[in-house]
Amino acid sequence: MPKTETFILNMGPQHPSTHGVLQVQLELDGENIVHAKPIMGYLHRGIEKLLESRTYVQGVPYTDRLDYVSSMNNNFGFCRVVEELAGIEVPRRAEYIRVIMAEFNRIASHLIFIGTLAIDLGASTGMLYTFRDREDILDLFNLVCGARMTFHYIRIGGVAADVQPEFVAQAYAFLDKVPHFMEEYNQILSGNEIFTRRLKGVSQLSVEESLAYNMTGPNIRAAGLPYDLRKVDGYSVYPEFSFAVPVGKKGDNWDRYQVRFREIFESAKIIRQALDGLPEGEFMAKIPKVLRPPKGEVYSRTESTRGELGFYIVSDGSTKPYRVHIRRPSFVNMQGLDAMCRGMLIGDSVAAFSSIDPLMGEVDC
Questions:
Q1: Residue 2 pLDDT > 70, yes or no?
Q2: pLDDT of 365 above 90
């Protein structure tokens, strides 16, 4: 066999499938990928250092800007670590509301995943449908906090405002619609031969490989490991709800798509249970006007839409954290891109990247 020479092709950062802020260096042998090296940092904003120069309360809005399509989940994770550090007990009603918002945001994020995966593979109609349905969730968020993207709704000690009867009625109405629009996606995408051929059997990762790359969230569940922090750690009031953890079999692009698809139904199930059992009481704990957690360090993690979102905070007893480090699931999951692309064709790299579902604001932090 004649020895061929490999060459480098840059995908991004201007390429639309890399969302404008990721460069992937593809080492190619003809059209076959030998290596895929992600080069990040185009969206770096220094949020960890910004959090260290703000008070704990002032830091909450900055977490909205990490995974900015799952801002509620970021608020949830940051507030939990500060509450653990400061010994703050959150009212039961507030915990229920937090879970409702986090699961609504999980559905909204997964809808974006389905839509962007579709348009990355050339099926632009899929994105129009998913964004149509995501609008209903943004309307719900607008009702409770007056914002549609960066919410600053979940606060240290609880939530910014109580939910009103109008919100509850609209939430139930949306949950009733979920099976109908999900069936539409099935007809448009899941049953489309071109769509399935681009995903099935492509970019497989085993459980062992996924663990070696520290992948979490839907990406590791797609490989067959039912690892979900809502079940494993049982934080907040999640143990009170009945829901399944969808898993895949092969760890390919199709399984990563299907896991998120099925998670939408499970999130809807959690929200309905939380709305049915929403307790009376306060929505915010009584916290000091000037918050000074005692000296110490805490690492707290939650199941964000993309996997394990962890916040590590060191307190020196002042009003500002001494050190903040964020474990961003999008950043960690990107480690698997090279293994997913090896031996694939150039076009498969787009599907692989999209199936990881990284959010670049969270990757660069």
A1: no
A2: no
Biggest CA–CA distance in the chain, Å, is: 75
Q: What are phi and psi of 309, to 5 degrees?
A: -100, 115
Q: Is residue 88 part of a domain?
A: yes
Residue 219's pLDDT band (cuts 50, 70, 90): very high
How confident is residue 1, by pLDDT bands cut at 50, 70 and 90? low
Q: Tokens for 51?
A: 């959090």
Q: Is residue 325 part of a domain?
A: yes
Residues in a beta bridge with 27? 8, 35
From the CA atom positions of the chain, what is the Rg in Å? 21
Domain span at 311: 42-332
Taking CA atoms, 102 is separated from 85, 98, 251, in Å, by 22, 6, 26
DSSP structural state of residue 297: E
Residue-wise pLDDT for 52-89, tens only, equals: 999 999 999 999 999 999 999 999 999 999 999 999 99
For the record, the structure tokens of 47 come out as 């949020």
Q: Six-digit token pair at 14?
A: 């201007």
CA atoms within 13 A on the CB side of 18: 24
CATH number of the domain bearing residue 313: 1.10.645.10
User: How far, in Å, are 59, 229, 288 from residue 53 at the CA level?
Assistant: 9, 30, 20
For residue 202, is it within any domain?
A: yes
The CB-based long-range contact list for 6-9 (8 Å cut-off, 24+ gap) reads 6/34, 9/346
- In angstroms, how far is CA 346 from the centroid of its own chain? 26
C-alpha to C-alpha distance for 108 and 305, rounded to whole angstroms? 10
Residue 92 has pLDDT above 80, yes or no: yes
> 32 lies in a domain?
no
Structure tokens at 236: 């907040």
pTM of the model: 0.95
Start-to-end CA distance of the chain, whole Å, equals: 46
* Number of domains within the chain: 1
C-alpha span between 253 and 357 (Å, rounded): 11
Q: What is the mean pLDDT of residues 185-198?
A: 92
| The pair of three-digit structure tokens given for residue 223, joined into one six-digit string | 């490989």
Confidence band, pLDDT 50/70/90 cuts, at residue 15: confident
What pLDDT shows up at residue 12?
82
